[in-house]
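Researcher: Please predict.
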Amino acid sequence: MSVTVAGAPVSFGVFELTPGSDDLVLPTADEVCATLQETGYLGVDSGPIGFLGRGDELRERLARYGLELCGGWVDLPFSDDAAFSAALPTLDAALDVFTSVVEASPSRLPLPTLADSGDALRKANPGGGAGHTLDADGWASLAKNVAVAAARIRDAGLEPTFHHHACTFVETPDEIDHFLELTDVGLTFDSGHLLLGGGDVLEGWRRWRDRINHLHLKDVRVELARDIVERKGGMIDVWSGGTFVPFGAGDLPMSTFLGEVVAAGFDGWLVVEQDLYPRPGIDSLPQVRADHASNRAALRTWV
């Protein structure tokens, strides 16, 4: 086995924060899957739980397009004990979706992709949270609750992964280090969110390689992102401001990074993400399809 390439609904503008608008028509699950099939992807991230369907509908859709489910996003308020307990049904609902396709995923099982929910102040300050971080009690709660979630996932026969993410309490390199010290969960290494959090992609890969079990690959125009953050823009401004771009148009050291990933024998999913916060009348499915073809072509030297 080796690196296997998947796509994601977020690259089509379909994710949990997609705006509601009468003028905005998002791609359907079939349009997402057909585009991925046509452009050479072998897997798909779930997107918002239920977007691709559930049970028989999900299994049939994946089979029709020759795709496997690579995982999906589940954010939980890990540092708030009461809120975490109240949110656990969200994880259970996601696990019902993931476990329903196990028999249809002969090569790789989906990875439930945990992430922290952050809080209002952190969400308003991408790039490090303006000094707003967890104290010792907050980290203790986060570690304890991640262990609870991980046990639930493992009891379901799957393996968890944790996504360091902008505007959460696990965002900067120091926070990622501390998270890995306190838990036994594998890391979803996201090149784009690491750059937004002030990290270096090559240094991060080399530093955390032994814990990385999932890859999200993005290219980012770092100076543009930093300019938006300096102007007190939030993640919606980052997403909609042209920060995430096709491979080769940003600051990702793609050739060196992927060379090291392949040389290290990484055995897992590589999920291509070009995060899109859709704008009515501007973003179109033909352009999204063209970007998917371009991004997949750019990877063919390695995978």
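Model: The chain has one domain: 4-299.
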